[in-house]
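ARCHIVE CARD
SHELF: 3
SLOT: left
DATA:
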Amino acid sequence: MARAPLLQLSDISLTFGGNPVFDNLGLVVQPGDRVALVGRNGSGKSTLMKVMATLVEPDMGERIVPPGKSVGYMEQEPTMDGFATLGDFAASELDPSEAYRVEMVAEGLKLRPEADVATASGGERRRAALAKLLAEEPDLMLLDEPTNHLDIQAIAWLEAQLSSTRAAFVLISHDRAFLTALTKATLWIDRGQVRRQEAGFASFEAWREKTWAEEDEARHKLDRKIKAEARWAVEGISARRKRNQGRVRALAELRAERASQIRRQGTAAMELESSGKSGKLVLEVRDISKRYDEKVILNTLSLRVQRGDRVAFVGPNGVGKTTVLNMLIGKTEPDAGTVKLGTNLDIAVFDQTRAQLDPEATLWESLTGDKAMRISGSADQVMVRGTPRNVVGYLKDFLFSEAQVRAPVRSLSGGEKARLLLARIMAQPSNLLVLDEPTNDLDIETLDLLQDLLGEYDGTVLLVSHDRDFIDRVATTTIAMEGGGNAVVYAGGWSDYRAQRKQDAPEENNNKSRGKAAKLTQKEAAQAGLSFTEQHRLKALPDEIMRVEAEIAKLEVYLSDPDLFTTAPVKFQKATDALVERHDVLGTLEEEWMALEEKAAAAG
């Protein structure tokens, strides 16, 4: 017996500003679906998801969700008016007996539920919106770029959560590894049309290229037919005017069909050239260290970067990756140690905060206002790697329309801001690129092009990214910042780092085996029989146990109401089930802690 769909869209039409976004669109999401929603920036992915979530009302069509089924949407810019803390917002739709779910997911997402809404950053707000969705456990989850503002550890946690969920989900992401690991079907938006393939993202590119090849062949055949009919019309229409009006009309219809075909959006015409060779040694650091008050950013690091190296920095948010980058290029002084920059360096920096972009300036002003790009006496040209270029033409290379050129930067999407910043960076002469999270918000096609450009770039790259696939494709060296000031150098990309770390972990303490200059405390030395991950787990378990004990105490207080069973039997049952589940979790955590303690004691 066929299952009823969780969500059905029928004959959806939507127009913004006279241009149709969708026309007669239909799609179905079934129970258990794990769907990648892909398409170019601006193709309508987020708009479609908002239609699915009833946040955007279509001009025509119908949205059907069966009774008793729920659809949840992760808001990009959640409204938190009336909530004191992020935790209050995340738990706002939950029964009090279920509020513990927020704390469970908050830990994995590195969200502080007690954080004040008024001072929370945009990234914290988005993590709160994601925590809210996961805690509510709807039948269908709509996830629009959930990995933005998550570090690699939180991305891995979220990937594990979605892998084990029973809920269906539709997922927009630029993270190839995330999409490949999780999805089993693909929705592709292309020029207002939505196609579906019953295969995950891993098969998407082959499917796309095959579709486009078939489309090009069909267009070529149509063009040949039009030419043949047009030749007949010129040569024979005067002799057969009455008999062949139908054929003339058919020719007009063929031309109308050809005119109605929408051209595919081209790939950004980005170019990246080095300004000339730097010295063979780009930079050398010896025994540098850094701390801010009690927080240790870097215990010690020694590193030589040669011309042509691609060095990636990975690690949790807040661990200090950007600070280390700034020390390497001389923007921040280390507390100790030396930094030596090589000769003939032209440094270009991509700033993850987009601080180089004035939100009130237009795209035009963002280029012409840059001293490095300005041409004296010219209002419509900029200097691009030493060559004058028309402002509009150069912005079109980065897929901006002429109508956007005079628009303010604040009107751009995240992906468009990233492309504008790349336009500025790539116009500068450079032979050392410093890219701090350049992959955020870029669509997959632009990521592919950026990867290819970096591969061909005759210069050196320092890179921070949480995109595992991008690091694998670009990096020749990976520096893992693992917390506590530890920074370890590995050959290769993300997968190489993980393989080497896994291989080394069982053998001996990571600090000793990799020659880290960081000093172990006596307690850590006593735990030398534990792997690096086990050490951190042993340190974290007491806090986890205390948190679960606090949740149990709250549930017990809630259940102590003698009238609860009579007045609210459903809530009573939910709270009782939650209490049993929390006790099970507590038992598991305590067993894990005891096992690690015994292992550490045996090693000592």
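SLOT: right
DATA:
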Amino acid sequence: MTDSAIRPYVTRDTRATALAALTAVDHKTIGLRWIITAFAFFIGAGLLALTMVTQLMQPGLNVLSMEAYNQFFTMHGMTMMFFFAVPIMLGLGIYFVPLMIGAREVAFPRLNAFGYWVYAFSGIALWIALLMGRAPDAGWFNYTPLSGPVYSPGINVDLYALSISFLEFANLVAAVILIITIFKMRAPGMSINRMPVFVWSILVVAWMIVFAMPPLMLATIMLALDRIVGTHFFRIPGGGSSHLWQHLFWFFGHPEVYIIAIPAFGMVSTILPTFSRRRLVGYLPVVLSQVIIGITSFGLWVHHMFAGELSVLAMTFFAASSMSIAIPSGVQVFAWIATIWTGTKLRLTAAFYWAVGFIPLFVIGGITGVMVSAPPFDWQVHDTHFVTAHFHYVLLGGSVFPLIGMLYYWFPKMTGRMLNEKLGKLSFWLTFVGFNIAFFTMHYTGFHGMPRRVHTYMEGLGWGGPMLITWIGAMIVGAGFAVTLVNVFISQASGEPAGDNPWEAGTLEWATTSPPARHNFDSIPAVVSRNPLWYALEQDADATPAAYELPDNDRMTMGTSTLDGEPEQRLLVSDASIQPLVMAIGGTVAFYGALVSLWLVPFGASIAFVSIVMWNWPGRNREKEQS
């Protein structure tokens, strides 16, 4: 693709830009907003982490006050877990799932836009609170009674409760949209056993969100009632239970680890076959492993509470469940290794480096996870740096590495330009080396008793030297991610034109232009293989599958049967609208207004109500269809 072909996409008509930005519902625009916003939160959380590790670099430092440190580590955890890790996976799903299944749009585009605005407003509100020194400060886990009205009387924890409830609603919206899109809008011929593994991973995660997020929303609403109204769900003097919060939180919290990890598994299963030049080894076992992990992850939550008051029988059951989930995870690791091992011609790109580098990091995190699933061992390392090292190997090493690899893989499709390969490999090696220096060292400090979540520590404990090493490693990690950030900005402006399929990949997102047209596909492709583009080449045909023609309407796509992908109907999806933004504004005013003045609650609710009425005004969609 030439520069002249790319330039019209990049430099749009400025007269309509503002209105288009506010009313856009196209899944690629909304998905890209999720992705960019999540990465912005990732950068912010990373800067908080570097500041915290600087505070702990040596004993007795005063880089941060105790109050600021509590807010920093709470916001770091909240941002990474709630506002980066899950939303970035949903954003990639919203952008790429329709392209990978041969659809022109997601189901319910306006609802999709509404979900994004809710996500953005909830995160912005929290970060404004941090700048004002009023951010949540009881940890991302927000344990009661520490987070109750007695020990945290300020507005800080109220913001936690309201923001998390608001955010999880956005996640549920995105999950439901993705489930319906995957089940009912696949290209003709794409039966469920022909879906790309990444699409399977998003489907599994979407179902997990449907079951995992409501308990957290319930818990945060109950906490808000305890704090604002005076109920006693978690307040022990009134007959409540602080353990109830832990059960509700971790019933969400441990599935969330796999809500983050399973899409990363799907990314690795997408990248490695492309650059190994062969189909994924063990497609069926890999997919079944993801489904099994998704189900089993709901039976592990109590291993976070082994240091509490639990019966031996309960601990035994949850320890066995926690160990058993390593089996389906191991199946995927062996499938990835076999795919590389039997590849016909390895192509050592930056994306391939990031995907392969993930494997040893995830294995280390998995091994330490099995270790802490044994109650006697967990009692020794509970709330120490050993646990911090474990979950960073699982979440940062096991999820962010594939995510950066997917950035290098899909950036050409999103922008029409290639990222710089040399900078990509430099970024990988800096991050990989720095990561192991920083977090492997934390296993050592954990074994030597250094607790998590401490503002400082005394001299003579033997932690200063290892923490200095951790600080050095963290700075190298920061430099590695900074190289990728610079690479993105430079390549977006002047990168090499990519062409439609620079990697010669086999899945449908590469069958359209780079970047994709507004309607994705001129004609809906017909699928006869798990890798339709490779199948077409093997059959000596064009690199584009056979297609189903639709009327000249870029808001029309194909509806197909759930199991076999048989054509059933033509679907007309909604066009641009300002109502999703207006309703999100009304909801934000109503939610957060309760912390300022109760009069803002009906005011915001009125805005949302008017928006709903306009959203569903009789005849509006019919007029658009006839026009």
